[in-house]
Design brief:
Blueprint (H helix, E strand, L loop, with lengths): L7 H34 L13 H25 L3 H31 L11 H32 L9 H26 L2
Length: 193
Amino acid sequence: MDLTQGTAEEKNRRAKKMMLWFGIVSLIMGFAGWTSAYIVSSKRDDWISDLELPQAFFISTAIIILSSITYFVAKKFVSRNDQKMGTVFLLITLVLGISFIVLQFIGFSQMLENGYYFTGPTSSIKMSYVFLIAAVHIAHVVAGLISLLVVMVQQLRGKYMPGDMLGMELGATFWHFLDFLWVYLILFMYFVK
């Protein structure tokens, strides 16, 4: 397929999708770097191998998976021209996304209560990585929530219709990526001792 062919609208759609994928690939590279550094650092003598991740992280994992499902369902409703239910499921996705972030901060509090700190004399390199990886992911979820709010505003304005849902498709792709990324990160931190 020649990417230079097609109408201006088709070219615009392809360009927006390509930019999203460039962004996703760069995020993958960044997290691959941090998880690689985590693995290399795990060979250090001061590495804590018996750390238990906070329960809130596991609950938040279920929440973000559920939010991906609700975003998918919202898209399905809009593609069937059921705008009201599409909006309802976008709102549910927003509430779940905010709940994910709240649970992440509860997880940070649980780690602090257990004496694990990001920096300072009682911190460890492993805890610094856990805090860093989770915090950077939270920052990207905030970006995902902003994207979701934009999608919701456009949905309320009646912008999305069956066959014309580019903004919602891009937002959903980014959201699903954030979901997949967190599932990978929690499994990585759980199994790489």
